[in-house]
Amino acid sequence: MQSNFVSSRPPGRRRTFHIAALLLIAALVFAALSFFPYGKTSSAQAATWNQVFNEDFNGASGTGVNTSTWKYDTGTGWGTGEIENMTNSTSNVSLDGNGHLAITPRRDGSGNWTSGRIETVQDNFAAPAGGQLKITASLQQPNVSGSAALGYWPAFWTLGTPFRTDHNWPHDGEIDIMEDVNGLSSVYGTLHCGVSPGGPCNETTGIGSGKRACSGCQTGYHTYTEIIDRSVSPEQIRWYLDGVNYFTVSASQVDAATWSSAVDHSFFIIFDLAIGGGFPNGVSGTNTPTSATQPNVPMLVDNVQVYTSSGTAPTPTPTPVGSTPTPTPTPSGGCTGSTFTQGAQNVNASTGLLWFQACNWTAGYVIVHYIVGSNTQQNVYMSYNSGTGRWEYNVGGFSAGQTVQYSFTYQKSGLQYDTGWYTWTHP
Q1: CATH homologous superfamily of domain 327-425?
Q2: What is the 3-state secondary structure of the chain?
Q3: CA 406 to chain CA centroid, nearest Å
Q4: 8 Å CB contact between 355 and 390
Q5: Which fold has domain 19-309?
Q6: Residue 300: left (phi > 0), alpha (psi -120 to 50), or beta?
Q7: How far apart are CA 352 and CA 113, in angstroms?
Q8: Tag placement on the chain: N or C end, fewer CB within 10 Å?
């Protein structure tokens, strides 16, 4: 839905959803990628990142946010169909005294809803040319489900800084790092770009992950992360849940001008908890909220950080799709006399685990390039498993006796290296 507005305050999230398309895409994407595991963020990654923003939400219980760091967005509308009035009241936006931000929806005796939405004053969060930007937060989704959750729409997201002056959505780019609706304990990641309606990014739906299961995300804190990566070609945006990459959008999916206008600039950060609107209505198949919807259940944010990395590392050069690499025998043994060790192991009838272990040094990152059978090559950042001390990635879709060919790109002491190719056959 396009919404015209006359306001000095940008409405921000201005999308509605083509519901049938959304649900179909969500089902297909989730079915195709549901084998991804959830793990822990690598502490080794800190060696390559420079922290440029940190907020721990410390302060006395019942107080508001620091207005030198955060701006309140107030009012109604927002172009999404949501029905609440966003306020700057500590009834809706407050610190809990235990290092958390609480955004709490309220309903008065007449059935009118209020809630909260804040955005960073700082709006220069950008991936440098040849480098990366990481925006990450630990939060707990509202702990409400079933009919009591109908209409709940928590979100952690970013808007392109140009939007603050030109209000040109979705041209200026919107990256939804975390959204859930109706208490489904799920996560959706989405890029909005181009023009609306339609355009290269299928607006107003956007290019999205679809619904992904997020077990325990309403009862505990989980980490949601976006990385804009301009160190690889084509550039990427990657979405992570608890350190595991579950969705990626590449610059090759849209034209160069659309990507540049949406991604290659600075952003600011937004947290909000909307009530009702096109997204929860479409997923539930009914108008929300309803009389059964329960007020007073907050989204809790523990912390949010922003990091950048410089563009010093060379760009990986993956093997062209369609070429046949020459496999290298998999080395046996541990780290003795080696820079690294690696391997593959069976997980289940359709999944294998590829792993890489640095020998007495810290890898800034590890990328695995793999080809299963005659399929096209995939290039994916691995996740660090602190329990095993290895970088790991689960590859699904195997059949018994099928072979995977794989190699690694890794960063050591600020320099990037490529390994030879290895082969492993799924039992």
Answers
A1: Immunoglobulins (2.60.40.10)
A2: CCCCCCCCCCCCCCCCCCHHHHHHHHHHHHHHHCCCCCCCCCHHHHHHCEEEEEECCCCCCCCCCCCCCEEECCECCCCCCCCCEECCCCCCEEECCCCCEEECCEECCCCCEEECEEEECCCCECCCCCCEEEEEEEEECCCCCHHHHCCEEEEEEEEECCHHHHCCCCCCCEEEEEECCCCCCEEEEEEECCCCCECCCCECCCEECCCEECCCCCCCCEEEEEEEECCCCCCEEEEEECCEEEEEEEHHHCCHHHHHHHHCCCEEEEEEEEECCHHHHHHHCCCCCCCCCCCCCCEEEEEEEEEEECCCCCCCCCCCCCCCCCEECCCCCCCCCCCEEEEEEEEECCEEEEEEEECCCCEEEEEEEEEECCCCCEEEECEEECCCCEEEEEEECCCCCCEEEEEEEEEECCEEEECCEEEEECC
A3: 26
A4: yes
A5: Jelly Rolls (2.60.120)
A6: beta
A7: 49
A8: C
Q: Do domains 19-309 and 327-425 have the same CATH topology?
A: no
Lowest mean pLDDT segment, chosen from 164-178, 230-244, 276-290, 316-330: 316-330
- Residue found by looking up tokens 């939804």 in the block: 176
**pLDDT digit string, tens, across residues 350-402:** 999 999 999 988 888 888 988 998 887 787 888 999 889 999 999 988 888 99
- pTM here is 0.67
